[in-house]
Amino acid sequence: MPWLILLLYIAAFQGVVINRFVTNPWIATVGGMCYTIYLLHNYIIAALGMVTESVSPGSAFSVRLLIQFLLMTPIVIVISALYFRFIERPCMQADWPRRLKSKFLRIKGSPLSG
C-alpha cells in the first residue's frame, strides 16, 4: 500500500492529468477546507437531518439517503466555506491576535460605539 501512495504522489507532482486535477483552484480550496469540513459536517448533518428526514418518509432507505446527500452536501460545503473564510483562514496568519485586537480597538473608538 505505501508504494501505491508513493506512485500517487509522483503522479500528482510529475504527471499531467493528476497534477492538473490537484492544482485546480476549486479542488485545492476544498482540500484546504478539509479540516473545517471535518469539524463541522457532523453537526450540520445532525441539524439538517431533522428537517430533511421528512422529505420522503415512505421511500426506501437508499432513496432517502440519496435525497439527504443531495440536499445536505451543498449546505455543508457553503457553511464550511464561510467558516473557513472568516474564522479559520484569518487565524492561519501568525499575527492574527494583533490584527483582531486592532479591529476591536477601531470598532471601540468609532463614533457609533458610544
Which features would summarize this protein structure in a list?
114 residues; mainly alpha
Low-confidence stretches: none
Indicate the structural class.
mainly alpha
The geometry reads as flat
Order of SSEs: HHHHHH
| DSSP summary: helix tally | 6
Q: Can you tell me about this structure?
A:
Helix content is 79%, strand content 0%. The termini are far apart. The chain is built from 6 helices and no strands. The protein is flat, with a radius of gyration of 21 Å.
Short description:
The protein is mainly α.
Spell out the blueprint of helices and strands.
Blueprint: H1 2-14, H2 17-22, H3 25-32, H4 34-52, H5 61-91, H6 96-108
Helix pairs in contact: 4-5
